[in-house]
Amino acid sequence: MSKHYFAHESAYIDEPVTIGRDTKIWHFCHIMSNAVIGEGCVIGQNVFIAGGVKVGNNVRIQNNVSIYEGVELEDDVFCGPSMVFTNVNNPRSHVSRRDEFRPTLVRQGATIGANATIVCGHTVNRYAFIGAGAVVTRDVPDFAMVYGVPAEIRGWICRCGVQLGFGRQEELEEALCRACERKYILDHSSGVRPI
Q1: How far apart are CA 157 and CA 24, in angstroms?
Q2: Cα angle at 91 between 89 and 97, to 5 degrees?
């Protein structure tokens, strides 16, 4: 039976794993046993995926990213080059903290920019956009655009990746994406949602 995915000859893929149809795994990757990777993913050069990690469909993981135990990526997530996940808050070389791993969830459609750091125990929600070099230390709402150290909400973004034009500072505001014409409402007490 032939494989239904592509893996470069330099990649190490431990067994058992689940890898979806049309996924591509490039140079020097290591996929550990019991990892689950969906269909149509692209796993860039020098990526590590720990055992038990779940990666959804159509996920893009760029070069030099490690997906540690406790991290889950839903469908359509983008992880930029050299971005970082953590899985324990207070690591020490001489103290085992494997029983203290904290989960991190990256929800559908979220983008994490190059060299960003996602501190464990948080959720990056649907279609959020994490700017390059940001350090995420708390949950990120749906459609939020965050950057900085620590990352703060700097605006709101459409599911197509174009910044939304809110700005009247009214209790409820509407915005129309100039690229795809999706409509959104901003409730200053609860965030952005499509309408």
Answers
A1: 29
A2: 90
Amino acid identity of residue 87, one-letter, is: N
As given in the structure block, the two tokens for residue 160 are 């197509």
The token pair that represents 125 in the structure block? 């929600």
| Residues whose CB is less than 8 angstroms from the CB of residue 152 and which lie 6 or more positions away in sequence, other chains included | 146
Three-state SS across 27-71?
A: CCCEECCCCEECCCCEECCCCEECCCCEECCCCEECCCCEECCCE
Q: pLDDT digit string (tens) for 51-103?
A: 999 999 999 999 999 999 999 999 999 999 999 999 998 999 999 988 889 99
Q: Smallest Cα–Cα separation from 59: which of 83, 72, 34, 78?
A: 78
CA angle 117, 52, 103 (to 5 degrees): 40
Which is it for strands 54-55 and 144-147: parallel, antiparallel or unpaired?
unpaired
What CATH number does the domain located at 6-161 have?
Answer: 2.160.10.10
pTM score of the predicted model: 0.95
Assess contact for 82 and 114: CB atoms under 8 A. Answer: yes
